[in-house]
Amino acid sequence: MALPDFVYIGTARAGSTWLFEALRQHPEIYVPPAKDIYFFDRYYTKGLAWYEGFFKDIGDARIAGELSHDYYYSEAAADRIKADMPEVKLICCLREPVDKLLSGYAYNQTMNVDASVSLEDYARDPKIQKEFHYYEHLRTYYDRFPAEQMLVVFYEDLKNDPVKYIQSIYDFLGVDIHVVPEAANETINAARTARSQGLALFTYRIAQVFRGLGLANFVGRVKQSTMLNKMLYQSAERADVSVNSLPADVVEQLREHHGKLAALLGKPLPASWYEG
After folding, report:
1. Three-state DSSP state, 234
2. Would residue 1 count as lying in a domain?
3. 195 in a domain, yes or no?
4. Using an 8 Å Cβ cutoff, are 149 and 91 in contact?
5. CATH number of domain containing 131
6. Most C-beta atoms within 10 A of its C-beta, which of 35, 50, 210, 229?
7. Cα 108 to Cα 12, 13, 127, distances in angstroms
8. What is the side-by-side strand order in the sheet with 63-67?
9. How many domains are contained in the chain?
């Protein structure tokens, strides 16, 4: 049994569910049913044999990988990945911070944030602000892995041209870039609201319990259930909020490291990151 060839390390609310589907739909790639195994940050004490078990059904696929979008925050995860899989390829997708914050606020209200929490209070929460320290978190990985093993892409490119976006990832992974996944024509994790916030929160917490018991694949299969999603959620228009909905000092904090980040990546950030 082998360890994965690639890992998506982050971030959340940046198309990771869409990418999960696009990777699953490539015949040369295997990803387990569980998105977000969280082995290297939360469940490392379960041991490598437990982790390897997620990839036992690789079949005829050429490569295998996993997506756990919280690895990006964890220096411990970076150290463990380096120690156990020094040759692994790492993928990270970044989303313009203000847009990501607004999306995260709307999404988390359906999952694990009290609906009465204001956008400003949410934005000033130190735990939430930590998500946007892109430069610091990525530097942790660039300090441990050579640049050729790292691919940093942008959510804005996914929105603008999903086929070109996924081809860049397929190319990085060394598989056929001419495969066009069904996901290229789909919107994954579109805006939604909970039919019952209490029930959605209860389901979320139960899922975390099952993950802790080592049943992440089961959680992954259940999350893909159309019936369950229709029962828990309904489509919703995104709230009419923008950069103007946030205090100027919050926006400034979200954008203060753009220059350092571009220098670290060795390429410019999307022009939309500087608008508004």
Report:
1. strand
2. no
3. yes
4. no
5. 3.40.50.300
6. 35
7. 11, 10, 13
8. 29-30, 63-67, 6-10, 89-94, 150-154
9. 1
**Residue-wise DSSP of 191-209:** SEEES-HHHHHHHHHHHHH
Query: Is a pLDDT exceeding 70 seen at residue 26?
Result: yes
Residue with tokens 């120690």: 83
Name residue, tokens 């400034």: 252
Tell me phi and psi for residue 153, to 5 degrees.
Answer: -120, 175
Q: What does the mean pLDDT of the chain come to?
A: 85
Residue 122 lies inside a defined structural domain of this protein: yes
Instruction: Fill in the amino acid letter for 56.
Output: K
What's the CA gap between 41 and 27, in Å, rounded?
29
The percentage of the chain sitting over the pLDDT mark of 70, rounded to a whole number, equals 76
Between the alpha carbon of residue 1 and those of residues 8, 16, 40, 53, 67, the distances in Å are 20, 26, 18, 8, 19
Residue 20 falls within a domain, yes or no? Answer: yes
Domain range for 241:
6-274
pLDDT digits (tens, 9 = 90+) for 171-222: 999 999 999 999 998 765 555 555 455 555 556 566 666 556 665 555 555 5
Smallest CA-to-CA distance from 78 within 136, 14, 15 is with 136
Mean pLDDT check: name the lowest of 67-81, 85-99, 102-116: 102-116
pLDDT value of residue 103: 87
Report the chain's terminal Cα–Cα distance, integer Å.
Answer: 50
Q: What is the pLDDT of residues 97-148, one digit of tens each?
A: 999 999 888 877 766 556 678 899 999 999 999 999 999 999 999 999 999 9
Residue with tokens 């039919």: 195
